[in-house]
Amino acid sequence: MKSRFGAAIVAAFGLGAGAAAAQTADPAAAASLTQTCRVCHGLDGVGTNPMIPNIGGQSAEYLSKQLQDFRAGRREDPQMSIIASDLTDEEIKALADWYASITATYQLPE
């Protein structure tokens, strides 16, 4: 059975949520910011290996908080801490809005 999740995050299970229509002022600029992210998270936000989280469809608020925490050192990861350290507030918002605008779908086990 296929199911689409709304804007809420089911964090206890680590499931991404389909975001409500989050939009940035300049989607082309946001897409260009994803160049670095794509290496691990793909353009669609799906991790390129099992150790990389799927971020497509997560809420913009959640994604912004994680990037801000990496940037501030409240959360640490060898790659993400370095990448986030150079992001401005506007770039964080644009990236969060971009990945939140992706509709994630999941298939429940039968």
Explain the overall architecture.
This protein has helices at 27-41, 60-72, 80-85, 89-100; strands at residues 2-4, 105-107. The chain has a two-stranded antiparallel ribbon. It has 110 residues and is mostly helical. It has one domain (2-6, 13-107): Orthogonal Bundle (Cytochrome Bc1 Complex, Chain D, domain 2), CATH 1.10.760.10. It contains four helices and two strands.
What's the helical proportion of residues?
40-55%
What's the helix-strand series? Answer: EHHHHE
Name of the CATH first level: Mainly Alpha
Rg over C-alpha atoms, rounded to the nearest angstrom: 14 Å
**Number of DSSP-assigned strands:** 2
Number of domains: 1
Average pLDDT rating: 80
Question: Beta fraction of the residues?
Answer: 5-15%
**Can you tell me the residue ranges where pLDDT is under 50 for at least 5 consecutive residues?**
1-24
**First CA to last CA: what distance?**
7 Å
CATH architecture: Orthogonal Bundle
CATH homologous superfamily identity: Cytochrome c-like domain
Give me the side-by-side strand order of the main sheet: 1-2
Number of helices: 4
Shape: globular
Under CATH, the topology is which?
Cytochrome Bc1 Complex, Chain D, domain 2
Structural class comes to mainly alpha
> How would a textbook summarize the main sheet?
2 strands, antiparallel
